[in-house]
Specification:
Layout: H1 3-7, H2 9-14, H3 16-33, H4 35-48, H5 54-103, H6 106-111, H7 114-121, H8 123-156, H9 159-165, H10 168-206, H11 208-213, H12 217-269, H13 275-287, H14 289-316, E1 336-344, E2 354-362, E3 366-371, H15 377-384, E4 392-397, E5 400-401, H16 407-413, E6 414-417, H17 428-432, H18 441-450, H19 454-459, H20 477-491, E7 495-499, H21 507-520, E8 525-529, E9 541-546, E10 549-554, H22 556-562, H23 565-574
Parallel strand pairs: 3-8, 3-9, 6-7, 7-8
Antiparallel strand pairs: 1-2, 1-4, 4-5, 9-10
Length: 583
């Protein structure tokens, strides 16, 4: 049960001063809380024996008030320090999780659903933070404070009465242990179900247009209802065990009260203890309710925290598929990019997506990559970004193997515009500034002109300050592509990769963007993958991929003379619906 604290020892060691202060303050506050019942008993005995004077009464009242003030101040200190530490732990783990996510490759996100990762980053972190806050509180109160109470009851009143009243404790320990095991198992299942529901909600929101287009609203509603029922059932299973804690505690505490009151009254009649002692004992017994209840809460909180920490650690312990070189080399000038006998298969597949691919690229060249869907164009770009391990053959930047370079340097060279553009829920200005954080409006307007987006921007309600909505929902497909292009252009990268990034724009707009590219990137390397041949006709070198292999290569003129797939595809695309060539 306490293994969760061992798993978090790295945090407690770092903040040992904070937690030592919090625990000592909590113990002092608890000790101070034991004094008022003795004062009450003392006053009752003086009343019973008619020895209470005004001077003594004033002293008792003043002492009581002073204890209240001191107890309040010390309680504030331990509360602030202890629960402040829990907030720090949550912040630390959340930051580490985010750093971990940013280092992960597509393989990781293929194995883990987004909704489940969100559940681990929210609900599970809350449960872990509760362990470092409320868990420490219940641990101290269910051990130190309980023993302090028992010691006060035994040493200052009667050990016989104390031991008799505590007979239900062993029974409680056995029952609480069984409840704790059940809580751990059920809470783990409930959190997993919540993660699956999160993922379903995300997919429904992202795909709402498709759901409506195919009139699947009712089916999606029913599917979501089924998932919510599953989450409900699993949380109810947790709640059933939760609900047993308090009644069990009350029954056992009530039994302790019955023993204490009955046997205590007998001891008063026998003059073993005074009436004031019996009153004090019952006050202490009432104070013992919380420590006894804290035992149950401690087991509950620790089991929840342990289950959540296991889920978070499972994510954190996932080793990135692509590892940094231990001693990365630096390339000062990116003069060449070489692919030598490059062969690659995605993890878990037997088919090779690229086979024996070789290509030599000089700085400043534009490389066109065409081929049928699934030919390997996007795969090649992902390998250039080093998103996957397991490469056979070589990729070299400036005569240095890609494995020897740091990931930061590789990706700092590259401006990548993928097939599916990702728009952040921010303004157009902020989306473009992802390419260059300190970009001025003048620079933004320049790249928007290159991306042929200025006319569209004039029609938007707030210009650059227009919010694009979730995933760019307020923009059309062509507009999203051009904002993504502007974001890459403003970075002015050494290598620009356009992965079918002009598919949603018309031919005239595409021609203007290509013309702008040719003027602006004279001495920079550009890779353009496209299904429309018109996007690559200007390229210095064009390769045609088929099943991951280069089947044709050369300039546009050379490929047209060869009379292969490229020529056939180009001529088909140049024909209008009526069979006439489009000029």
């Amino acid at each position: 049960m306490f293994e969760v604290f061992k798993k978090l020892d790295w945090f407690f060691k770092h903040y040992w001063k904070r937690y030592t202060f919090a625990i000592i303050s909590l113990i002092i506050a608890s000790a101070i809380g034991l004094i008022p019942p003795k004062i009450v008993g003392y006053a009752i005995d003086h009343i019973q024996f008619e020895t209470l004077t005004m001077k003594l009464l004033v002293l008792i009242v003043v002492s009581y008030l002073c204890l209240i003030v001191v107890h309040y101040l010390i309680s504030f200190l331990w509360d602030y320090t202890l629960f402040g530490g829990a907030v720090i732990l949550e912040k630390w783990i959340r930051s580490r999780l985010m750093d971990h996510f940013l280092k992960m490759t597509p393989t990781f996100f293929g194995k883990n659903k987004t909704g489940d990762l969100m559940a681990r980053s929210t609900n599970d972190l809350k449960a872990i933070a509760q362990t470092a806050g409320f868990g420490i509180l219940t641990l101290v109160d269910s051990t130190t404070f309980m023993f302090m109470l028992i010691a006060m009851m035994g040493f200052t009143i009667s050990w016989k009465l104390t031991l008799a009243a505590l007979i239900p404790l062993p029974i409680m320990a056995i029952i609480m242990n069984k409840y704790g095991a059940a809580i751990h198992a059920r809470f783990t299942k409930a959190q997993a179900a919540f993660g699956n529901m999160n993922n379903e909600v995300l997919e429904s929101i992202r795909g709402v247009r498709v759901i409506r287009a195919f009139v699947q609203e009712e089916q999606d509603r029913q599917r979501f209802q089924t998932m919510t029922e599953d989450v409900y059932d699993k949380n109810i299973a947790v709640a059933k065990i939760d609900a047993l804690f308090e009644p069990t505690m009350k029954v056992l505490v009530g039994l302790s009260y019955t023993i204490g009151l009955g046997y205590g009254a007998l001891l008063v009649f026998e003059n073993v203890i005074t009436l004031g002692d019996l009153v004090t004992f019952n006050v202490y017994l009432g104070m013992l309710i919380w420590p006894m209840f804290a035992v149950g809460e401690l087991i509950n909180v620790l089991q929840r925290g342990n289950a959540s920490l296991d889920r978070v650690n499972e994510t954190m312990n996932y080793v990135a598929d692509v590892q940094e070189s231990e001693a990365p080399v630096t390339v000062n000038s990116l003069d060449t990019i070489d692919f030598e006998n490059l062969t690659f298969s995605y993890p878990g597949t037997e088919t090779s997506q690229l086979k024996e691919l070789s290509l030599h690229v000089k700085k400043g060249q534009t490389i066109g990559i065409v081929g049928k869907t699934g030919a390997g164009k996007t795969t090649l770009f992902k390998l250039m970004l080093r998103q996957y391990p397991g490469i056979d053959g070589k990729i070299q930047y400036g005569n240095k193997a890609i494995e020897a370079l740091s990931l930061d340097q590789i990706r700092s060279w590259i401006g990548y515009v993928p097939q599916d553009q990702m728009m952040f829920s921010k303004t157009i200005r902020e989306n473009i500034q992802f390419g260059k954080a300190d970009a001025t409006d003048q620079e933004i307007f320049k790249v928007m002109e290159l991306a042929h987006f200025l006319d569209d921007m004039k029609q938007l309600p707030n210009g650059l300050d227009t919010q694009v909505g979730e995933s760019g929902v307020t923009l059309s497909g062509g507009q999203k592509q051009r904002v993504a292009l502007a974001r890459a252009f403003i970075k002015d990268p050494e290598i620009l990769i356009l992965d079918d990034s002009l598919s949603a724009v018309d031919g005239k707009t595409e021609a203007k963007i290509i013309e702008h590219l040719r003027k602006e990137r004279n001495n920079k390397t550009t890779f353009i993958a496209a299904h429309r041949m018109s996007a690559v006709t200007h390229a210095d070198h064009i390769i045609v991929l088929e099943n991951g292999q280069i089947v044709e290569e050369g300039t546009h003129e050379t490929l047209m003379k060869n009379g292969g797939w490229y020529k056939e595809q180009y001529e088909q695309q140049q024909l209008g619906n009526d069979g006439e060539v489009i000029s």
